[in-house]
Amino acid sequence: MEAKLSKASRALNASPIQEISHLAQRCGAINLAEGFPDFPAPPHVKHAAVAAIAADLNQYRHVQGICDLLAVKMKQNHVLDFDPLTDFVICCGQSEAFAATILATIDQGDEVLIFDPAYETYESCIILAGGIPVYVPLDPPYWTLNVDKFMRSFTGRTKAVVLNSYSPHNPTGKVFSKEELEVIAAACCQMDCLAITDEVYEYITFDTHKHLSIASLPMMKERTIITSSLSKTFSVTGWRIGWACAPTAIASAIRNIHIKVTDSAPAPFQEAALAALQSPPEYFSSLKADYVAKRNFLIKMLSEVGFQVHNKPQGSVFIFAELPKTCLLSDIDFVKELIEKAGVAAVPGRGFFHGDCNDQTQQSRYVRFAFCKSNDTLSAADQKMRSCVGK
């Protein structure tokens, strides 16, 4: 029956992150692989969802108030004016918002630039649309933008640049500097390309680093599509409430695709989104402080068992660490052994690298750990890894 499958479906591989998570579940391992919190969502957000369910808000629904609040936040945070009636599309998570954006903008043979290393979803959406992913490698160990490599990646077929979880970046935790974003923006204007962003970690930045949307740079609002969601900021990755924000004509196309594919995002959780988006400033401050403590705890443990953490995460919920110098295993073999012997799951770094690289060995030396876990979970992982790793 495989002959009946589409070429696009046959071009996609199983998600290595989900495979690791399933293996961790079967083995009873602590899951530091997948980026979902194992602690409760904020009480005021949960109460809003429960109230919506109790009120029987169970049918297809579009909650315009979400768009109204997002327009206010765009103005407050980025000095960007968007029309809440026309420029926002509520979707089933950032993943659907991104997929609908790609289907609305990318034709067969269009090339789309992605910064490498990268989360797996972007490539899959581009392939399904008939586009061609073109990877632009960031320079390790601090994952800086190499301007020459970036500019050489453009061709006459380049349609868009994807800023993949870019500020901060998944898996590295890097926050792109304003200077780097200015280079990317200038290239998009010069080459007449779209910028498609994933800004799900926009509120999870650390120390002095801040999220800057490329749409706020000169000449970029009219060529940028922003995607984001509630998932990471409010610890509700399973609720699937996300959105796209774009110039009116593009937003209309995204909305048409969204309606044809899923019709509407989950109704009760749209109501809860109203409460989430009206959270007081103290909520966001507390969120950052909690994640800084978790980040520092995990960095300390990884460093003490021999990992090399060159790039202290400037944001996101991940640490992209290089294996101990004394470790002769590849990232894949190390992760399997970590699950089996220590009972802790992480993600082999190789799954985030896609483009050609002169140093393939280097790609097999990284492992991603998620620290969006409870303090009890992190402490348990600490004890298990110290008993197994670095001996």
Overall, the morphology is globular
Radius of gyration: 21 Å
Taking the sheet with the most strands, its summary is:
7 strands, mixed
Mean pLDDT, all residues: 94
DSSP helix fraction: 40-55%
Number of helical segments with 4 or more residues: 14
Keywords:
single chain, 391 residues, alpha/beta, seven-stranded mixed sheet, three-stranded antiparallel sheet, 12 strands
Describe this structure in words.
This protein is an alpha/beta fold and 391 residues long. Helices cover 42% and strands 14% of the residues. It has helices at 7-10, 16-27, 43-54, 64-78, 93-105, 121-128, 147-152, 178-191, 248-261, 267-277, 281-304, 331-342, 360-363, 375-388, and strands spanning 30-31, 88-91, 111-116, 132-137, 158-163, 194-198, 224-229, 242-245, 318-322, 344-345, 347-348, 366-370. The strands form 3 sheets. It has a 7-stranded mixed sheet, with helices on both faces. A 3-stranded antiparallel sheet has the order 9-12-11. A two-stranded parallel sheet has the order 1-10. Strand 3, helix 6 (121-128) and strand 4 form a beta-alpha-beta unit. Helix 5 crosses helix 9 (248-261). The longest helix is centred in the last third of the chain and has 24 residues, at 281-304. The chain starts with 6 loop residues before the first helix and ends with a helix. 46% of the residues are buried. The mean pLDDT is 94.
